[in-house]
Structure formats: structure tokens, C-alpha cells
Records
---
Amino acid sequence: MTTLTGTPDRPVRVSAVLDAPLSRWLWLVKWILVIPHCVVLFFLWIAFTVVSVIAFFGILFTGRYPRALFDFNLGVLRWSWRVAYYSYGALGTDRYPPFSLGEEAGYPARLDIAYPERLSRGLALVKWWLLAVPHYIVIGFFLGGLHLGWWNGGLVAVLAVVAAITLAFTEKYPKGLYDLILGLNRWVLRVAAYAALMTDTYPPFRLDMGGTEPSEPEVLS
């Protein structure tokens, strides 16, 4: 197992492993199975917003993102990514997501964001509402809405369901679709981290497709 660690030049690192075999029909009821997670995430994302506002003032006055607040928001993003991967953000695993803010090294969907020692005070004033706007427009097509975090229909969910229907009839999850879905989710998570002021590194306008980050030879085994 390789440790997933963000770096200053690539602070947001998203990885996943496609489980096999996957149930051919479980995806039909996952919308019911994730309801407990959706309830918890509803409140966690309220807390995420409040924490981000507090962190904004921390950055504005000190140039630093308070570490405890950073770890909490990272935990919310990790939790959301695991739930999305299990459900209609990818349908890439049948392993039920843990109710956890921490890093779950054994789970097939993982996320890490490098903690920034210093952040620009000036960028904190504009990046979440101005600089990120072009990305908001793009990921709006990916997601179709921004509810309970970042996953609520849109292109990502449609592609995941197409992959699930293909799986139901062929017992195979199309690799090309999987790589594309992971690339779309990776783009969304990079923008989420940037908009939440967790990094000053501007998200790239590109699809880094596949389960591993570019130049990342292996993530999970």
C-alpha cells in the first residue's frame, strides 16, 4: 500500500481502486443505503461552511489556515468522496463507507490535501468567489447542483449509471468510463479544496483521468 500525500505543486491528490467483482444490481438500492450518510453530511457541510468562514478570517489576519479547522474540512471532503464513490458519484465499490472524518487507508477511495504552511491573504479575498468562477461553470455541468457537498446528479451521475447498467449486463465496469468518471471527480475535488481556501494552487483545467494521480505509480494494493 502506497501512502497518498499531497505536495506543494500538487496539493490535492485523489485516488481510487475499482473493486471487483461488483454486484450487478446493488446500485439500484444504494440511494436508500446512503440515506444515513446524507443526513450526517447535511450537518457536516453546514459545519464545513462555518469552519471555512472562520478559517477565512484566520488566513486574513495570520496568513495561516488553523490546522484543526483544516483537518476537519479535509475530513468532510474525505467522507463526501467515499460516499460519492460508493454511490452515484462513481459506483466504484460495494464496500459501505465508514462514518469517519479520518483517513481510511483500507477504503478504495482516498483523498489527501497538503497542509499549507502559509497562504496568501490577498487571494483569500477573491479566489472563492471570483477566481474560481470559471471552474464553477465547468463543474456545474459535471454535477448538476451543489447539494450535500458536491455530488447531486449531472454528468457524473449519468455516466456512473450508464456504467452500472453496462455492468449489469456484461459483468464488467467499462474502463474508459471509469477513468473519465474519476477524472471528473478529481477536477471537482480540486476546485472544492481551492474554493474552501485550503490551497493557493489554482486548479488545472484538465481531466487527469484514471484511479491514480499523474506520476503516481500505485495507490492501493
Note: The first strand starts at residue 12 and ends at 16.
---
Amino acid sequence: MTRPRIALFLGILCISIFPVIVKMNLTSGLISAFYRMAIATAIIVPVAVCKNKMRLENPAILRPVLLCGLLFACDIAVWNVSIQKSSATQATLLTNLSPIWVGIFSFAFLGYRPRNSFWLGTAIALTGMIVFVGVDTIMGLKLDLAFFLALLSGLLYAIYILVSKRVLEKIGVIPFMTYSMITSTIFLFAVNVFFGESFVGFSEKAWLSLFVQGIVCQLIAWLLISYATQKMRPTRVSLSLLSQAIFATVLAALFVNEKITSIQMIGSGIILIGIATTFYEKKSKQIK
């Protein structure tokens, strides 16, 4: 397994606890999104300054970097709210439609035609996701605000992956993460002020959850995923992110005593087969 794949695996593992923490409702979804970014930003900025990573050789690259920050901030804010207004299962299912959007947008706007193995892998993985969450859950989906927020989250996620892939071809991971997270933090601060959210008065457990989100789910996870995005195809990265549903279920069983059903195990196996399918290539071709 190559370094980018290892980084992607570890990054997905780090973000998989995020839905479990958000669903605990220790803080509002918007405040959770803000502190996730603010805590990570407070750590990475001094590191970037000390390592002289803030200087950009081409200042024009800053605009798409800032766009990435806005896209990511909108994504996690919308997803957090959708989780708290419905269920982590529904939000995760709809958000994880992002591989389809990545494939469509890649073909429509970037002139990149995803391989047949990607579409086959996506079909298999999404079938596994349906099995994983259960047909009853699919049939019970309501076209309410939470539904459309989760769907919007998937769209934002897909656009972020594609834009960040292009940007990371021209800039290093640390300056990219630093400037984009500063943008996300400022934007989410403004959103919370607009909606009248309180920034203080949380329990010790809530503060602990916020620091876990900021350090593990944001800083560590997205440094790793950004590195993988820089080195790998966006279609592969987006589809691999489906596995976070599996990891989240395992973590929920470990930390909040949720049971793993046999149906979930079967669905997990199908999802993993789908992900593996998109990584398949003929031996004559180099595998990244």
C-alpha cells in the first residue's frame, strides 16, 4: 500500500468519529462546526508561520484556496445541522452520494472521463450503503429540510474535492490547509453571530468533544486526506470516503454501545468491494 493510500485510510478513520460526536448534541451544529475549524486553525497557523509556509509563490492561487475554505465551511455547517435535525444514518447516506457528483462534475466541467471501474465501484458501494442503512430507512426518507440539507452537503463535498484537487496541484498541503481553514473559521464565526449562537457556557464533556473534533476530525484527518487528494484521483478519494460510514458504526459500538447488526456487516462488505473495484487496474498500468 502506497503512502497516499495509507494517509487516506488514516484520515477517513479520524473523521469517522465525527457523526457520532455531533449526534450527541453536546453543542449546536453550527457552534460545533465553528470550533472544529477554530481549534484546528489555532494549531496550524503557528506551525505554518514557524516553518515559513505562509508565503505563496503565486498570490493568484489564494483565491481558489479561499473558495475551498468557504466550500468546506458550508459543507460541515450544513451537514451538522442535517444530522441533528434527522439522523446520522440519513445524513450520512445522502452526503455520501458525493462520489456520483464527483464523477458527473469531472466529466462535465473538467474534461476528465472517470474509468469504468469507478462507475462500477460506485454502483456496488452505493448498493452496499443501501443494504447498510436498510431498505426501511430508504423508504422512510422524508423530503424535509434535513433531507435537502444532507443532499446539499454531498454536492458541496463533491465540489470541494474537485476544486481542492486542482489547487493542491499548485500549492503545498500546509499552506493550503492554513489559508482555507482561516477562511472557514472566519465564515463560520460570522454565521454563528448571525444566528445568535452562544460561544461559551458548555459542559466539560462538550469542550472535550469540540477539541476532539478540531484536532482529530479536522487537523489530523484533513492534513492526511489533503495529502491523499494531492496524489490520487479525486474519484478514488471521494468513493473511499464512503468507508467512513463503516468506521463510524464500529466507533459508535465502542463508545456509545450501539449494536452492529448482521445487515450492517453485509452492507459493509459490499461497500468495501465497491471501493476496491475502483482501485482495480490492469497490471500494465501504474497504480497510485
Note: Residues 3-278 form one domain.
---
Amino acid sequence: MVTAVRTAALSLEAVTRRHKGRGTATLADVSCVFPVGSFTAVVGPSGSGKSTFLQCAAGLDRPTSGTVRMGDTDLGRLSEAQLTRLRRDRVGFVFQSHALNLVPSLDVVENVVLPLVLAGADPASRELLAHGRRLLARVGLENRASARASQLSGGEQQRVAVARALVTEPDVIFADEPTASLDPDSARLVLGLLRDAVHVDGRTVVMVTHDPEAARWADAVLTMDGGRLR
């Protein structure tokens, strides 16, 4: 039973996701609460349902049954256009794939402020670009603002992705295997930035990972197996 939804950044209640042609549900009756200002790692073996969990929780996929709420907003009651606006305005993403994180045709600072530009901000605004540069300074990349994504290392690209995830001051940041392709030093930098987002800014971070070392950076760990939380 989910309780204290009003104090939760995100909650799932009895969420099930079934795909056509599969005998078992990818997610089966999943209920959990993510408090405001928490850092939670969702772990489990390949095929355990972690990715489907993230997609349903972030409004990228609709569950077959059950309820997903972001704050007091029931995602199941939103149209596709409303879901798109919610993801743009209230959610930050850090993906495993560098190709998904950054747009090659934009420079680094333009990548950081892209969510605000998509929301209608003037891409040439000095205030907007200054905001982007402040976030780059925070992740230690202020000197790379004019670089292209192809000029950055994998670790640098992930740090830019964290800056972009913060740019809209989101309610929830979803990180999907954010350290999977990084060396240990780069992974620690990225995980430290995610912790700062929680403990400095009060954001809520939900991180899917198969890496027990990465999971140790979280305040809480949920384990998935066979589409269920264990």
C-alpha cells in the first residue's frame, strides 16, 4: 500500500506492464514511493524489468494497469501532449547512451539549455546561455562550453548530461545506467554530481543500474527480479 503520496516526488501503485506475445508481465504489481530529496538505486539482473520500470515511472511508457503519480499528478490521466510537457518541464534524464544525451550539431552550452529552448526560450538569450555556463561550471566543464559533443570524452559527455538534467530544476531526475561505459574515475564524478543534485538542490534521483558500486552512492536500493520488487 502506498502512503504519504503528498510528500512523495514520485509514487507507483500496483503498476503492471504487459506486452503482447509475452506470457508473463514485464512489471507485476509494483508499488513504491520516492520521497522528495531522495536518491534511490533500482538494481537487478538483465531482463528483471528495470528498464520498463524506469519507462513507466518517467512517463515514457504507459502501464497496463496501476497508477504512477509525480507529486499529485496522475500520469495516467494526461494526454500524450501533456505527458511531453511534464517530461520537458518536471523531469531530467541522464541516459546510458552518449548519443541519446547530446545533440552533435549543438555546442556544449547549447546542449545544456536545450530543454529550455524547446519550452520556448530564446536560444540566443544572454541570460539563458549564462545559466547554461553556470551549470557547466558546476560540473567542472566551464572551459568546454563552445566544444562539440564529439570533442568530449565519455565521462565529460555524461557530466554535460547531468548539467542538462538540472537546467529546468526538475522534480525528478531519471538516470539509466549512467556509469555503464565510464572508467572508475569518471563514474565517481558523475555519481557525485547526482548526489549533489539530491543533497544540495533537493532533487529526487531514481537511478537504474546493474553496478553494485554505483548503487552504494544511493540512499536506498530497490531490487527487481522477474518484474517484481524484492
Note: The radius of gyration is 17 Å.
